[in-house]
Specification:
Elements: H1 14-26, H2 30-36, H3 41-50, H4 56-70, H5 74-80, H6 84-103, H7 107-130, H8 138-154, H9 162-173
Helix pairs in contact: 2-3, 3-6, 4-6, 4-7, 6-7, 6-8, 7-8
């Protein structure tokens, strides 16, 4: 590793160290990134962003990493992680970036999504309650909308679940704006 001998104490600021981590992940091979993505947030972010450019074999491996993070128990992850929503958002963005093109490609990919859906849904429900604290909230709407599109395409039976319908209605209602009046989101989560 070309960066192993670098004296990190000589970096001038925390931002320099963060930049170094990003640069390091940029020069890793996809297989090295996949290995790092379980414990390194910049690596997870990188594979999440580039997943749709990879061959199918690596996309399957990326999906497994994304699902690994989504399987985490909510209470433990929120308590144990410094950036719990960063990890989950990256994993959900990775699944969003795989999209219908990936999950509709084969029966195995459909089964992957179906098997992961309970974990996707549990985190979407958590993030619905904190979305206004997450950047500008648009990531949440983008993720929720794409998850519903994938469901409509490959896992329609889940849309008959009362809990999913309730979630879709809550997303449609939106949240109070700065003027404290309710408004409706332009990103409906599920079309039920």
């Amino acid at each position: 590793d070309a960066f192993a001998d670098l004296d990190k104490s000589k970096l001038s600021s925390p931002h320099s160290f963060a930049s170094l981590i990003f640069v390091r992940t940029f020069f890793l091979t996809p297989n090295q990134l996949l290995k790092d993505a379980e414990t390194n947030l910049p690596a997870l972010s990188h594979i999440s962003a580039m997943v749709n450019t990879l061959p199918d074999r690596l996309q399957r491996s990326c999906f497994n990493v994304f699902h690994y993070h989504l399987k985490k128990i909510i209470e433990e992850h929120l308590c144990d992680s410094d950036e719990p929503y960063g990890w989950i958002t990256c994993a959900l963005l990775g699944i969003r970036n795989l999209g219908i093109g990936y999950f509709g490609r084969s029966e195995n990919h459909k089964q992957q999504f179906s098997g992961c859906w309970p974990d996707i849904f549990k985190w979407l429900k958590v993030m619905l309650n904190v979305r206004h604290h997450l950047e500008d909230g648009l990531s949440f709407w983008s993720i929720a909308a794409e998850a519903s599109k994938i469901c409509l395409s490959v896992h329609q039976d889940v849309l008959h679940d009362d809990e999913v319908v309730e979630f879709a209605v809550r997303c449609w209602i939106g949240h109070p704006g700065e003027d404290k009046e309710d408004f409706y989101t332009e990103y409906p989560s599920c079309r039920v």
